[in-house]
Design brief:
By secondary structure, this protein is of the alpha/beta class. It folds into two domains: 6-101 and 293-323, Rossmann fold, CATH 3.40.50.720; 103-284, Rossmann fold, CATH 3.40.50.720. Helices cover 36% and strands 16% of the residues. The protein contains 13 helices and 13 strands. The protein has helices at residues 15-25, 39-46, 61-66, 85-90, 103-118, 121-130, 135-141, 157-166, 183-189, 196-202, 222-227, 245-253, 296-312, and strands at 6-9, 30-33, 51-54, 72-75, 94-96, 149-153, 172-176, 191-193, 205-208, 232-236, 257-262, 282-284, 321-323. The protein has a seven-stranded parallel beta sheet with strand order 8-7-6-9-10-11-12, sandwiched between helices. A six-stranded mixed beta sheet has the order 2-1-3-4-5-13. α4 links the parallel β4 (72-75) and β5. α1 runs parallel beside α13. The relative contact order is 0.13. GO terms for molecular function: glyoxylate reductase (NADPH) activity; hydroxypyruvate reductase [NAD(P)H] activity; NAD binding. It comes from Actinomadura syzygii. This is D-glycerate dehydrogenase. Residues 113-289 form the D-isomer specific 2-hydroxyacid dehydrogenase NAD-binding domain.
Length: 330
């Protein structure tokens, strides 16, 4: 039996992604990949693993219990709401994320979604495929971003990356977060801090960049949407739990909200009976904000560096540490 540490990838991924994992970890780790996303496959892969990697799936208490040799659960992204961190703590297993690693990719899709809704892109693409000349119809339903106000709710790494990309469209950018960033940084990004009520009154586009917590889940509810500027475009690339989807669908159906661009939903995939599926001005992508091939090696390299630090007693960026039981100062 090999005495090398074992890294287990707990999400089923294509061969190209597994090859990157093997290339980065293979020199000094044995690599195990689940064949499918079943709970049984995850538990089997966790047995004997030193490091557990998860991109988008859950790591529950049963999987953690099977991972008796594990030292680290590494999220290949930022959100750790699908990891049972309390169970990991109880087992003495560190939980890390990869802070900021997907920020640029997610920021790009946030802008894409805002443009797709504002320019009625699904309808335009359908018209082109059917050979229909619909320029005047589409003109009446479309607007450019120039001169509009974009509101960022949350200003972490992804929020700031999104601000940089929207800035090129000639928009006014306002933001609200629990913590205001330094004035020098605001000037650098070309953004202004406002309270939440003002953001709702002013913003033509609101882009969500908040984590899923008890205080943020359901923040976009009927009250929020009624307080928003009429004709709002809502963009969510953060967490589906932030949005009351029934309230959003009702607001779009009533014409109070122009539309929404959603890379995340409360349930993934979206249930077939979701009212969002019937709305022309809802643009949906299946949680692919960070899913770009040319960034994946960076993600895996960060995971490798963090794993080596845990095993070798090295240092890890504090921004990556969610929990590290037994580590001095954590």
């Amino acid at each position: 039996m090999s005495e090398r540490p074992v890294v287990a990838l707990l999400d089923a991924m294509p061969e190209t992604s597994r090859a990157v994992l093997a290339d980065v970890f293979g020199a000094d780790f044995d690599v195990v990949c689940v064949p499918d996303n079943s709970a049984e496959a995850k538990r089997a892969a966790a047995v004997g693993a030193t490091v557990l990697l998860t991109m988008w799936g859950s790591v529950d208490a049963d999987t953690i219990a099977a991972a008796r040799d594990a030292r680290l659960i590494q999220k290949l992204g930022v959100g750790t709401d699908k990891i049972d961190v309390a169970a990991a703590d109880a087992a003495g297993i560190a939980t890390f994320k990869a802070a900021g690693i997907n920020a640029d990719a997610v920021a790009e899709i946030a802008v894409l979604l805002a443009l797709a809704v504002g320019r009625a892109f699904p309808k335009a693409m359908d018209a082109a495929r059917r050979g229909v000349v619909a320029k005047e119809d589409l003109r009446a339903e479309s607007f450019q971003l120039l001169g509009k106000t974009v509101g960022l709710l949350g200003l972490g790494a992804i929020g700031q990356a999104t601000a940089r990309r929207f800035a090129g469209f000639g928009v006014d950018i306002v933001y609200h977060d629990l913590r205001r960033i330094p004035a020098e940084r605001e000037r650098e990004l070309g953004i202004r801090y406002v309270d939440r009520d003002e953001l709702l009154r002013r913003a033509d586009v609101i882009s969500l960049h908040l984590p899923s917590t008890p205080s943020t889940d359901g923040i976009v509810d009927e009250t929020f949407l009624k307080a928003a500027k009429p004709g709002l475009i809502l963009v969510n690339t953060a967490r589906g739990s932030l949005v009351d989807e029934q309230a959003l669908a009702a607001a779009i159906g009533e014409g109070r909200v122009l539309g929404a661009g959603l890379d995340v939903t409360a349930r993934e995939p979206l249930p077939a009976d979701s009212p969002l599926l019937d709305l022309e001005r809802v643009v949906l992508t299946p949680h692919v904000g960070g899913a770009v091939a040319n960034n994946f090696p960076r993600v895996i390299r960060r995971a490798y560096e963090n794993a080596r630090a845990v095993l070798d007693g090295g240092d890890v960026s504090p921004a990556d540490v969610v929990s590290w039981p037994g580590r001095k100062g954590t």
